[in-house]
Structure formats: C-alpha cells, structure tokens
User: Fold these one by one.
Assistant:
Number 1:
Amino acid sequence: MRFPDIAVVLHDMDVVLHVAFREHPQFLPLLQILLGLLLAPLLSGVINCTKSWFAGRRGPPVFQGYYDLFRLLRKGAVFSLTTTWVFQAGPVVGLAVTVAGLSLMPWGSFRSLFAFPGDLILLVYLLGLARFLLVLAALDTGSSFEGMGASRDVTFSALAEVALLLGLAALAHATRDLSLSGILAGVAALPWAEWAPSLLLVGAAFVIVFLTENARMPVDDPNTHLELTMVHEVMVLDHSGPHLAMIQYASALKLWLLGSLVVGVLIPCDTGVRVVDFLLFPVCLLALAVVTGMIESTMARLRLLRIPQLLVAAGTFSLLALLLMVR
C-alpha cells in the first residue's frame, strides 16, 4: 500500500470515528473500557519479555498473563479456617472497584465514560479503597507475616498518594480543569517550550508512583519470595484459584490505570487525527511497559529504609511543579 493510500484510509477512518462519536457519544468510552479490560494483562507480559531479553534468556511468552488467569480460574479455592467473609470479599470487591476506576480514566485527549469535575479525587479514593480491601483480606488471615507486608504496603502507598495528589493538583491548575478528561486533553494542548520543566517534574513523580503502586523495581520485586523483602506478594500468599486470578487481574488493571496517567503527561497523543491518537495510546502504554522492564533489568531493589526517601522525593517533584505553575 502506498503512503497516499494510507493517508486516505486514515482520513476515512477518522471521519467514521467522528461520526460514530457524534451520533453515539458513549461508543468511544465503552470501547476504551473494553480494550483496557482486554489489553491490561499484556503489559506484564511485555515487561517480563523485556526482562528476559536483557537477561539473555528466552523467558515466558508475552501472553503468559492470560494463560495464568485462565489456569487459576479453572482451579478451586482453598480457605483457611481462621478467615471470615472479609477474606473472600476482598478480591471480588477490589476488582470491581478497579474496574470502576477504569471508567474514569480517559485515553489521552479522549473523554472517559464518567467524566465530571473532581473525578480525579474519586480515582485516587478508588485506588485507595482497592488497597484497603486487599490489606483487610491479608489481616483477616491472622498471619503476622502477611500483616508485615500489609504494614509496608500501606506505608509506601500513603507517601505515594501525596505525590499523586500534588501532581494532579499541579496539572489541574495548569489546564484550569478538575476533570481527568479535561486535564489530559489540556496537557496535550499545552506548549511544551513553556511548560516542559513542570510537566517533566510531574511525569517523574508519576513514574515513581507508577512503580511503587504496582510493586515494581526498585521499590518491590514482583518475583521475590524472600520473607524479609516481600511487600505485595506476601499479602496474597493465602489466596488461590479464582480469588488469586481476581487479584492478579486487578493488578494488571492498576498497571494500565497508572500507566495511562504517565503516558498522558509525558507522551500526550495529539496528532490532530483522532484515529491515530486512539491507536497511539495503547502503543505508548506498551512502550512504557518496555521501559519498565528496562528499569527492572538495570536497577537493584532499594533497601526498605530508602523507599520512603524515594517517595518523599516524588512528592517534592510534584510540589515543585505546583509551585512553578502557580507563580
């Protein structure tokens, strides 16, 4: 196919997308949610493949996350006699809350399904609620080992939320909008020559939050089973079967959600052609997964005492960006 033909095809697809969105305003947001639900487990597969390539080994296939979910769904669940209904409800409600957060997250300059002023606060609260339910399920086992992991996870997340909220506040001030859809669309329209320092500071803070909230290096090692270093994995040791599948799927969706924020700030997709912007967004998320795999392959896990310092640095980045934008 020649390049002029590709331009014609993209123009025709852009017209079709524009007409579909005008006649059916909920078409694109629903498509975004559907693709997010479908593609989210692919991000972890890309990360693992990148790490395998850096290590010089073959590694698991890129679709291993899907295989693991299907395998766990076919298994039965085993529950300890010391647990209550809280242990069983935690993964179910946590997954539902994460899916609800997916309906608030836009694809770059495209609006989300439920966009309203202040939805950024609701998104942060939904992520916090999902974490709270997972912590409750870990504490319900009565295991001091899982309680140790829950304590670490809550400590790191409390510091990460400060950086996330300050970064969102800085973006809201720059774009004069309190909706995530308006913020990310406004970031794509900002002149980078003027706003580059502030946006880079917010982007750096969001990258640290992205790695922390998703239990990635250098904050946590998702593949470790050493008792003294486990954080997230230790909280899900007693889960099995479909409940473990729900936790892993919710983690994949959380990876997609926070990755969308990083892409929306650092790689705003605004080419002027809606169909190209729509297709570029998941491609940028896959590129972020490759970068995450590179980070995990080239950095060692930080000592536990160093992680709060890293998160305080992320909060400082967001605060500096806010001060630069309000001056």
Note: The chain has one domain: 30-326.
Number 2:
Amino acid sequence: MPYKPRKPCAMRGCRELTPDRYCEAHKKQTVKDYNKNNRDKATNKRYGRKWRSIRGAFLTRNPLCEMCKGAGKLTPADTVHHLVRLADGGTHDSDNLQALCHECHSRLHASEGDYF
C-alpha cells in the first residue's frame, strides 16, 4: 500500500514535512494544548497516567484490530475503545475494552453520531 504524501506541518512557521497534520515535534504540544483548553477536568482525570498504562498493557495483549479480524483482515490496533463509555458508568476493566485500528474506531463513532 502506498504511503501518504508528505506535506508541511500545520504549525505556523514549521517547514517539517509529515504524513500527518503535525510533525513529531509539534504533535505532543498540540495534544497537550487541546487537553488543557478544550477538555473538562473530569475527562482529563479519567484519561491520565493510569489510563495510559492500562491502554499500553491492553494493546500488548491484543495487538490486532478486533473489527478487522472479524472481517478477515489483520490490521494492527492503535486505539482502545470503551464498549460502555466512562461517562455512562463504564470502567477500564478489560471486559469493557476493545482494541481497534484508527479507521474502525472512527467508523464506529461516526455510525453512533459521536464526535462528528
């Protein structure tokens, strides 16, 4: 499969070429700014250091996207999805988590009418 063409970083003044929106140097800063300015404090607490540890361990145990695997494709998972949202009473327990690739995760939320 061909790679995406590289384009300049979206950060003003940066000329680094990247296949994503931001280069590696600015990606962390934009996520940090988003979490600080756009997310409420309760959400930041739910997705802190403990969640990153749980997410990493879950992806190590479940390295393939579960939706793609059901369709007969082998795609690496890079996102952990909560079956029952934390805001709706869900937990970080492994029976409430699902390993997905970015494409399947976006498709799932788009079909539910979330974030779009």
Note: The longest helix spans residues 24-38.
Number 3:
Amino acid sequence: METDKETFKKMFPNLAKELEVGDQRVKIDAVRTDSDEAEKTVPDKFRGYCPTVIDFIRRCDTDEQADEIITYLQKRGEITTEYADALRVQLQNKGVRSFGPKKEENYYFKHAGFC
C-alpha cells in the first residue's frame, strides 16, 4: 500500500510523530543465543490465554453477579443461548461456587509468578 506523508499523518498521527522524532531507542544490553533458554526466562503460563465465562463467573461473589455475567456474554454473542441456559441451570441448582473456588485479587499475576 502506497500513501503520501500527509495521508499517513491523518491515518496514524501518533506513529507519524514517533517516526518524525526518530530519537526513541531501546537499549539492549543482553543477548541470548539459545532460544530455548530465553523462553524459559519468560513466565508464560497465561501467554495467549483468553478467559472463559467460567473464569469470569469464578470472580463473582453472588449468584446474581454470575447471572449478569452470563447475560452480558450471551448478548455480546460470546456464548450461545444453549450454553447460557445450561450455565443458568447449574447456577440455580448448585450456586456460584459450583463453578470453582473464587478467584482472588491478582489471581493471574500470582499464578504466573509475578507476585
């Protein structure tokens, strides 16, 4: 895709500023030649992880909150009506803790080793 400078500035104003300044650099003071060793240094337990409806429900304190989550995700089309109905049946019959223990504050940070 070819474009002129002014069009580029209109489409990507912040990127254009960064390119014009041209002074922003990141110092690299270490190099790893062994890619396997480099990958071991990065905690990646949740890399690329996308929370599910169950993950959101496990953050809820009440059945009402869990039902709001189910309704919201159903309206957004992130879960099907059939799945939402099944979740509501479980919620009504067994309660919010039937989906698993409550996920505490900073759950992902703690389990990924950041806290």
Note: Residues 52 and 78 are 9 Å apart (CA to CA).
